[in-house]
């Protein structure tokens, strides 16, 4: 059995892999990197009813991986570069041989993978992500609880806050329909409700990620193979807005289940591969 651990900025996740089968998944909040890695490992072993003796290797990835020592619970640790883990995890979750994989966590990273993972490249990203939703909301709305914010965004009306193409031009412009955003937050006045502002925050974050993704997909001819992973895309509201952007730019999205475990799965897969060769 191989355990893949992803120490993200917000969350630490683990998966247990036996052969190519996932036999367990577990999540804890990232507090202290070493402590969070310990605790997620404890938790996953307990839940699948296994002992640390059953673990051949621990694969560790994510932003916090660098701060982990050589062993956890006396088990050897192999570090896997997060970009490689995103690439391999995205291909495994989608069943594709090539893809643009967008990791939507606290921040957003874009990775292209070709030839079943033989070629994996970090092509960029944006600091706009889940952390942006939480940070702006903390200041503007007095809460950063994601589930509460999502409910507010569902009730709110972003067009009270965002300037649309119709507001400026009175109708569609070129390829852009009348209801598309011309300027996120461009119309924000004191009469907008908190729900409207929440809707606008969700709009801006989803649209920035959506547009950056569309440009990258076109640049790499991967419009048919866009895979969205990370916790943020599990949000119904975020996914809904990104789907609208995808329609506008004619790209085909794949949003696999368990996408928040992409990095942990990819890390474990990378170790499996290196053990075979
Ligand atoms: N229930 C939820 N549904 C969707 N998104 C959520 C939910 N709860 C929190 N989030 C968002 O998920 C983000 C964290 O995502 P994730 O756990 O994938 O990041 P991470 O791996 O810790 O960060 P990074 O990969 O950038 O280091 C938070 O910033 C928050 O905005
Ligand atoms: Mg992450």
Helices and strands, with pairings:
Elements: E1 2-7, E2 11-18, E3 21-29, H1 33-47, E4 57-61, E5 71-72, E6 75-79, H2 82-94, E7 99-104, E8 108-114, E9 119-126, H3 130-141, H4 146-155, E10 163-164, H5 165-169, E11 181-183, H6 194-219, E12 226-229, H7 236-248, E13 253-254, H8 262-276
Parallel strand pairs: 1-4, 4-6, 7-12, 12-13
Antiparallel strand pairs: 1-2, 2-3, 5-6, 7-8, 8-9, 10-11
Bound molecules: adenosine-5'-triphosphate and magnesium ion.
Your description of this structure?
Helix content is 39%, strand content 24%. By secondary structure, it is α/β, with parallel strands linked by helices. It folds into 2 domains: 2-79, Nucleotidyltransferase, domain 5 (2-Layer Sandwich); 99-256, Nucleotidyltransferase, domain 5, CATH 3.30.420.40. Helix 4 (146-155) packs across helix 6 (194-219). The protein is globular. The model has no long low-confidence stretch (mean pLDDT 96). Magnesium ion (MG) binds at residues 6, 8, 62, 103, 105, 230, 263. The site of magnesium ion has 7 residues, from loops.
Which distinct ligands sit in these coordinates? adenosine-5'-triphosphate, magnesium ion
Query: Nearest-angstrom radius of gyration?
Result: 20 Å
In the CATH hierarchy, what is the architecture of the largest domain at level 2? 2-Layer Sandwich
Helix content: 25-40%
CATH superfamily of the largest domain: ATPase, nucleotide binding domain
Assembly type:
single chain
Anisotropy-based shape: globular
Level-1 CATH class name of the largest domain: Alpha Beta
Name the average pLDDT. 96
Largest sheet: 6 strands, mixed
Q: Strand tally, please?
A: 13
Question: Strands of the largest sheet, in order across it?
Answer: 3-2-1-4-6-5
> Which H/E pattern describes the elements?
EEEHEEEHEEEHHEHEHEHEH
Q: What separation lies between the terminal Cα atoms?
A: 17 Å
Strand content: 15-25%
Question: Are there runs of 5+ residues with pLDDT below 50, and where?
Answer: none
């Amino acid at each position: 059995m191989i355990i893949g651990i992803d120490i993200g900025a917000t969350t630490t996740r683990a998966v247990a892999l036996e052969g190519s089968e996932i036999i367990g998944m577990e999540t804890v909040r990232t507090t202290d990197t070493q402590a969070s890695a310990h605790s997620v490992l404890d938790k996953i072993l307990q839940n699948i009813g296994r002992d640390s003796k059953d673990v051949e290797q621990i694969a560790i990835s994510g932003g916090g991986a660098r701060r982990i020592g050589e062993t956890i619970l006396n088990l050897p640790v192999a570090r896997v570069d997060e970009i490689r883990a995103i690439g391999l995890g995205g291909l495994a979750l989608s069943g594709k041989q090539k893809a643009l994989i967008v990791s939507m966590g606290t921040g957003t990273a874009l990775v292209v993978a070709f030839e079943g993972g033989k070629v994996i490249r970090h092509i960029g990203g944006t600091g706009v992500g889940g952390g942006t939703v939480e940070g702006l909301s903390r200041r503007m709305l007095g809460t950063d609880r994601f589930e509460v914010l999502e409910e507010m965004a569902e009730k709110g009306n972003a067009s009270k806050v965002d300037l649309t193409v119709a507001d400026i031009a009175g109708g569609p412009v070129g390829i852009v329909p009348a209801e598309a955003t011309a300027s996120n937050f461009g119309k924000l006045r004191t009469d907008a409700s908190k729900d409207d502002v929440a809707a606008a925050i969700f709009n801006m974050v989803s649209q920035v990620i959506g547009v950056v993704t569309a440009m990258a997909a076109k640049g790499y001819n991967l419009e048919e193979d866009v895979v969205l992973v990370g916790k943020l895309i599990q949000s119904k509201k975020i996914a809904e807005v990104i789907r609208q952007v995808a329609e506008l730019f004619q790209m085909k999205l794949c949003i696999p289940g368990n996408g928040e475990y992409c990095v942990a799965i990819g890390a474990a897969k990378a170790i499996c591969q290196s053990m075979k060769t």
